[in-house]
């Protein structure tokens, strides 16, 4: 809601024991338009408390300006898009009330007193009432003032109150599947996967301008392109580059740095500093993969423990900033196998980006 | 359904274009009681086709014996437990029909012709009708024979047909949350996470009987125990051990082998062979983590590329058998840091078990 700039105030209604936690969250993420209000013992009583902030002095240190339209939403529907919020608000302006609906996934039935089927509803005629809903403020506030204690204690549907007490038939707006309610443990799993999916849409591949990187620096972004949107830039990280700044400010959450030095910690630190300043890692972890190239002819080539210790230590430090660092070694002794090795590196990079595993930070994978 | 031994026949109704795929699946997993039947163009027509196998010669090469009770279930509800199937069947025996129900997650509303709210249903009075459902065969078959083309084309609810055409009020049985319908992409994510969760309940830690392993062989299982059920056994893999056989046959999907040799491929192959014979990796991937200990005093210790190549090659081979092999190196030069190193190894093991990433096979992680 903070991201939608035409919303002027945001009231978060929270149970008394969680108010301090909520205030900490609001401060951490720098939310500016949020007022926290104490919840009631039922859904309707909580919503009523939220509405009172605009109408009754006692509920807020500073009375907020009464809005024309108020949106009511559930925090358990975190994937709501601006588009549906906007549609519901426009419909509420015209009809006085509006709410998002979805097709029913299951048939709805009524049971008789003996626990047997009384009748089933024809699925096509009914809809699931979802959130967000929006109302002319005067209508919904009037409805809450008029409604009975029974409504406040046992009801759940705001559209019903607007209809019953203000004779307002809400406009129903077809919503999208992402309005679903995060209810069960499986929904938390789904939410986590959706967020990880959203974070895995784009990767920025940074190559240090060196001739020796030539082939891999070209082949690796190409191989990644079949799976993800790739921004490939060739710069020196020690110089402030505006293209890189742009990519960061466009909310890119994945970076691959290709170097010919084994542990280019110094250069990488510059990128970490830029990311930290950008606030990008505040909400979600950023993935940063350090790719080291090795083209030594020596068959007895080996990874030194010192390198491993260096990257591990670095990764532990950057994790505190919510940046997950992994190492990836690309060997390209045999030019005939180069494409294959690069493809295998791209597969490892995609796995690291998609999994975002905090346990695997500081490990050095080998392609 | 195959796992429930009191079910005598299983009819899988499949759209014509997927019949061959389904037959391949049935053969692959060795299902014995399954008959595949061609689906119709609607849900009800498909169910009717399934029922006809027990009553009409033309629908099956061999007429199956007519059952007393028939269970109807959706393939999109794969997490159904035997307990609820059993409850629904018992209720159907007594009442003629029965079905699982769940509380409504959203309020259900009826819309008027103008797209506005007509009325909302009191959520507490209604239930979502889920699957499985069960019926006395004669009742549901009679209902399908009697019902109209309109029912067959537009209806979705079997309980409704039993009520309408056979005056049978189905008994409603409260179901569990795992009856949910895998409908949207997010449900596939949730299903994947639930399966991975189920596979991450138990790990078998195998130590090769050697004095040098002593401390880690004891500390590692202890550290894992705070996060997962651990079966620790100390055996030589080259000998056929009945405890290991028991653990495998109890569907353990995670194995950790601790060795002091760097790449104990030979011994591990014995375990891979045992797993392959057990059919355990048929349905889900098995995770096999090879833990190598290194206690060399030499500071210039390094991982040879040869070792990496060996484990990678081995992992690629075993992946074909649906066994995911990862390497993990535990360094314990400094006795003071041993507990910390072991804890970090346990965290890596848990991450590998939970993620089951096919891309990271053959990698050597360092604790």
TrEMBL record, chains A, B:
It catalyses: D-ribose 5-phosphate + CTP + H(+) = CDP-D-ribose + diphosphate; D-ribitol 5-phosphate + CTP + H(+) = CDP-L-ribitol + diphosphate; D-ribulose 5-phosphate + CTP + H(+) = CDP-D-ribulose + diphosphate. Pfam families: IspD, ISPD_C. GO terms for biological process: isoprenoid biosynthetic process; protein O-linked glycosylation via mannose. Cytidylyltransferase required for protein O-linked mannosylation. Catalyzes the formation of CDP-ribitol nucleotide sugar from D-ribitol 5-phosphate. CDP-ribitol is a substrate of FKTN during the biosynthesis of the phosphorylated O-mannosyl trisaccharide (N-acetylgalactosamine-beta-3-N-acetylglucosamine-beta-4-(phosphate-6-)mannose), a carbohydrate structure present in alpha-dystroglycan (DAG1), which is required for binding laminin G-like domain-containing extracellular proteins with high affinity. Homodimer. It is an enzyme of class 2 (transferase). The gene is CRPPA. InterPro entries: IspD/TarI, ISPD_C, ISPD_synthase_CS, Nucleotide-diphossugar_trans. Belongs to the IspD/TarI cytidylyltransferase family. IspD subfamily. Keywords: Cytoplasm, Nucleotidyltransferase, Transferase. It is found in: Cytoplasm, Cytosol. One of its GO terms (molecular function) is D-ribitol-5-phosphate cytidylyltransferase activity. This is D-ribitol-5-phosphate cytidylyltransferase. Pathway: Protein modification; protein glycosylation. One of its GO terms (cellular component) is cytosol. Coiled coil: none annotated. The keyword Transferase applies. Residues 201-345 form the D-ribitol-5-phosphate cytidylyltransferase C-terminal domain.
